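Internal ticket - ligand job 294, magnesium ion:
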Amino acid sequence: MNAPTPGNLGNPAVLPGSARSIGDILISSGRITPEDAERILQRQKKDKSKFGDAAIALGVVTKEDVDFALSRQFDYAYLPEKDTSRSPELVAAYQPFSRIGENLRAVRSQLMLRWFNSDSTHKVIALVSPGAREGRSFIAANLAIVFAQQGTRTLLIDGDLRRARQHSLFALGKSAGLSGILADRAGLEAALPVHGLKNLFVLPAGAVPPNPQELLGRVAFGALLHVAAEEFEVIIIDTPAGTDYADAEIIASRAGAAIVVTRKNQTHLSEAALLARRLQDGGVVLVGSILNDG
Ligand SMILES: Nc1ncnc2c1ncn2[C@@H]1O[C@H](COP(=O)(O)OP(=O)(O)OP(=O)(O)O)[C@@H](O)[C@H]1O
Ligand SMILES: [Mg+2]
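stdout (C-alpha cells):
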C-alpha cells in the first residue's frame, strides 16, 4: 500500500519514542533473563544487527515477543497473535511493525498534516473507491487502528449498509449500528469499544435496511457526525463501491472529505477519476488517494 498522493510523501512516520529499551522490556516481562540479554548484546555487536533480530537469531525469543516489546516501547495497543478472536486482516493490530503497518503510519502522518490537524472542524473522512473488493474496508479498519495507536480517539463507522464487514473484522457484539441510529432507534452508544485496542470505537452498520440510500440521506446522519465529532478526534467511514450506488457520494458529502482508494491491477483508473470528479463537483474535499498494492 502506498501513501496518499499526489504530493511529496517523503515524511517517514514519526513514532512516539520511549526511554525503555527492548531488552529491559523483554526482561521485565519475564521473556528473557539478564544473562540472555548479555548473550544477545554480544551477538548484536558481532552481527551489527538490531537487538530483537539478534535475540530471534539466538532462538531466545520469537518474533511475537519482539513485536510485544516494540509495542510496549512505543506504547502501542496491539493484539497478540495467539488472540485469534479478531480477523487476521487487522494487520495493524496483529503485526504493527509489518510493511503494511509502516505504510499506514505514513498515510496517517499525511492525513494529520493535510486534514485532521489543519482545522479543528476537520474530523471526518470517507474512504471511497469505484469498484468492489478494492480494499476500502481493509484500509478503513487498519487506518482506524493506527490512528488509535497514536493515542487519537478514533471512531470507525461502517457506512456500507449493503455488504457490511467491520462487525466481523472486529468480532463485535450486538449493536443497533449505523442503521439503528439513522432510523432513530439508538444513539452514539451503538458505537462499541474494541477490546484490547484503546481509543478505538467501531460503529457497525447494523441491520441491513431495505432502503440504505434513503436512510443515509436523512438529516440524522449529519446530526450523528456532529455529536460524534464532539467525542472523537478522528472519524473514518467505510463505504460501498462508488460506481454501484450513490451511497458513497452521500456519505462523502456528509463527511466533507474523502480519500480515493485504488487497487493495483484492478481499479479502472477512468472510473476512479470519474468518482473523484463527481465528489469534487459535490463539494467534497479530496484529501488524497491511496494505491492499494496488496
Ligand atoms: N493491502 C492488502 N493486503 C492484503 N489483503 C488485502 C489488502 N487490501 C485488501 N485486501 C483483501 O482483499 C479483500 C477485499 O478487501 P475489502 O473487503 O477491504 O475490499 P472492499 O473494497 O471493502 O470490498 P467490498 O466491495 O466487498 O466492500 C479482503 O479479503 C481483504 O482482506
Ligand atoms: Mg467493503
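Auto-summary: The chain has 13 helices and seven strands. Residues 5-18 have pLDDT under 50 and may be disordered.
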